[in-house]
Design goal:
Elements: E1 9-14, E2 17-21, E3 26-33, E4 38-43, E5 46-47, E6 54-57, E7 62-65, E8 76-81, E9 86-88, E10 93-97, E11 99-101, E12 114-119, E13 126-131, E14 134-135, E15 142-144, E16 150-153, E17 162-169, E18 172-179, E19 184-192, E20 196-197, E21 203-212, E22 216-221, E23 224-225, E24 232-235, E25 244-251, E26 258-269, E27 272-274
Parallel strand pairs: 2-10, 20-26
Antiparallel strand pairs: 1-3, 3-7, 4-5, 4-8, 6-7, 8-9, 11-12, 12-16, 13-14, 13-17, 15-16, 17-18, 19-21, 21-24, 22-23, 22-25, 25-26, 26-27
């Protein structure tokens, strides 16, 4: 019986591109029309062969690379062939980024220290640390490891600090950013509201403070707990028993620092104060 082979056509690789962090994994799948087809993967012009890091499955149509490195950044192509024809896919580019390690803990302004490590594989020619667009230089707060792989910052006291590490390897510069959110406060605490109001009036006292993250609030009245735990304290109808000293306490739940302020509230009719001390 005569077998008619169908020519190879429509060779494609999915996904068409991959943006990865160094040492992660990627799976590329090759599809094609045709009969009795075989698959061959190319990295630039070199054939891709199986290894402990490279796996070829599904008859060679699926390529899995674990622990990708910057040397895998050459374009990948899938070459499909059978006894009558062959075809090659469009190139698929894998983009590999550096891995910048840093502690996950929240940083407290003027109290926390941190270190950043720039990890990359291969023979690295240079590492340059950049802060806010300028080279990060040694100072009384900033120091570096001997190989410039790690930067130590002690303490952190800058707003929206952005640091990146540039690594120049084989004329390719890769960059990874990390931003620190400073933790501050509570500072500048105050109570906004009237110091006196007529009997029967609704009185609202608003406690404000500067805090990152936002502060938790609590109120005391004449030294006693009120069980009001937000920034707004409301007296629906002012009475003599509602006059006195209101204390607002703001607490930063990360730093556990707190700050308090007191407002004295009195009753009045017209220009005359009532319930005075």
């Amino acid at each position: 019986m005569l077998t008619v082979e169908k020519p190879v056509s429509n060779v494609a690789v999915h996904p068409k591109s991959a943006d990865l962090v160094e040492f992660s994994s990627v799976i590329l799948s090759c599809t094609s029309f045709g009969s009795s087809i075989s698959f061959l993967w190319l990295n630039d012009t070199s054939e891709v062969t199986a290894s402990d890091r490279v796996h070829l499955t599904d008859g060679g149509s699926t390529l899995t690379i674990v622990n990708v490195t910057r040397y895998d950044q050459q374009p990948f192509r899938c070459h499909v062939f059978n006894p009558v024809s062959n075809d090659t896919s469009e190139p698929v580019n894998i983009i590999i980024s550096l891995k910048l390690k840093h502690p996950a803990a929240i940083l407290i302004e003027d109290r926390s220290s941190t270190n950043l490590t720039c990890e990359a594989s291969g023979s690295i020619t240079t590492r340059v640390w950049i802060k806010d667009g300028h080279p990060l230089l040694p100072s009384d707060r900033v120091s570096f490891s001997m190989d410039n792989r790690t930067v130590f910052i002690q303490p952190v006291h800058t707003h929206n600090l952005t640091v990146n590490c540039d690594t120049d390897l084989n004329f390719v510069t890769l960059t990874q950013y990390v931003s620190f959110i400073r933790t501050v406060g509570p500072h500048n605490i105050s109570i906004i509201g009237p110091s006196a109001a007529p009997p029967g009036y609704r009185v609202a006292l608003l406690c404000t403070t500067a805090s990152v993250p936002p502060a938790n609030f609590s109120w005391m009245f004449n030294g006693n707990e009120t069980h009001v735990n937000n920034s707004l304290y409301v007296i629906e109808r002012l009475d003599a028993e509602d006059t006195g000293n209101y204390t607002c306490t703001a607490r930063n739940m990360v730093t556990m620092m707190e700050n308090s302020t007191v407002m004295s509230l009195k009753g009045k009719i017209g220009c005359m104060s009532l319930f005075a001390d």
